[in-house]
């Protein structure tokens, strides 16, 4: 098992620092997803019935219509109406929020697939998705589809599954039932306005529908305008709009503070944002969780912003271009930078929730006056990373373009917690390359190169990793020779130890075991000088693995015992349990008496810690060795299959099944 103090591993094989696997047990119920159902909408019963009939006939449905016609709102109603038909859950994919490949990755995770099992290539992810959904009566909704290929990617395999595509363009695939959404019936539209705006005079809702149409987006904007301005007559609405777009009338009626806030929100990456973010600009003394300043309440009242789930909001997409006479406020740029810092702070809290507080971190501190809420658990933090990753990735590119080098460094350092628990090595490498391109200090170059090097190794780009690490070593050595600051000397020493360790792991991947051992021992010596017992123990575990690979079993055992002593000293139970399993498996492989009972004893605390992937893989390894010895192995293999299936590791389960089938065919 490969472990690393700051950089290495997936949830399946990393024990240090609290790396978590977010799929910690069998799902008692399927995912219950979907956009928030907007209150007050009426007049879509016929559309719901038609879509319901098509789904009951096991036909995929393509829901089309103009922008602002209410397709997403109807999709939310479909999910809510037909939840009972789909016992394995309902999933919602928003392709406006993230591209198809990462969206498919996150969907697989939500369906219980271990992140490290998800292929890097889109075609591999699609094949796995088809396998996972083969027997699942799910309702899948894919929103924001722009072409047939995107629609096909998310179509579930089970005949009993339902599939609704929300699309801006007609699909060429004629297996879909096409349902085109039009404006509301005028009578229903007028009733909506009467319910939303009880102050409107008699007959005015009907006149408004006649003059401005019955498109849902226009009706929502009209309702916001009427509420915002306390309007009651048609002439007042006309004057408020002034002959332009409805949204212009809304905007012009805002206070100056609300106008500024709206423009700031428009400048953010992504339409969705956390409500807590708004608090950093208000200075309101009564600011607190679930409370929003008056300027933000104005945007909510005007329906320029809408809630999407607890604590999260979305800027409503315009139906028409907005015309403004005034130029953008110059301080919006600074506000966007502050919002980026807020998100970095949030990412750092997520990092600590997942990786624990004692992981080595090197990025400079953020401005103290910008704070963000923490997370209650590692699983909550991982879900935040998943939901925000596409936006964070785009924001990172913005930071690099503006040469906010320290902020870019801080963000990608925190993102390691996400990358270490997913299989998104390609995206990870891109992020580290982006931050490295604007790195301005030797410390940043060294740290980012080490992070990038680990990603490149997992991508089998070994020569590139070697070159990156070599250049970083040279940069670090120059910096060490030119400073006399004790604090900086210590930091540079820690980074030197990390680069040396990563280089050792690279040599092991290259099959250069003696060089790997020398580098890892050298890194251990650095960490001894710096009094980092946990880091020493983890490096010793890597050294022991190499000894085992070389057949030097006594050396492997003594090295693992040394590592155990360090973990015992600092109370690192997770790494200690992992090392006990290493030792038990070594003795089992060597044929020691009672070693199998030691393996089972070592697996018990890992099972209690929900490290099921490691437990399943261990049962598989035991089965393989028992088969080699001609001893009974089926029970162990079936335990592995049961664990993998229970936690959605279908690829692992299938691998063991195929091995069992092969063994059956070999029997005389």
Describe the fold and architecture.
This protein has 668 residues and is mostly helical. The protein is 58% helix and 6% strand. The protein contains 27 helices and eight strands. It has helices spanning 45-56, 71-81, 100-110, 122-132, 148-153, 186-196, 204-212, 216-229, 234-241, 246-252, 256-267, 294-301, 332-355, 378-401, 405-419, 425-437, 442-458, 462-481, 486-509, 513-529, 533-549, 553-570, 573-590, 595-608, 612-629, 634-646, 650-666; strands spanning 61-64, 90-94, 139-145, 162-167, 177-180, 272-274, 305-309, 312-315. The strands form two sheets. It has a five-stranded parallel sheet, with helices on both faces. Strand 3 (139-145), helix 5 (148-153) and strand 4 (162-167) form a beta-alpha-beta unit. Helix 3 (100-110) runs parallel beside helix 4 and helix 16 packs antiparallel against helix 17. The two termini are 36 Å apart. Mean pLDDT is 86; it is low at 1-28, 283-289 and 319-328.
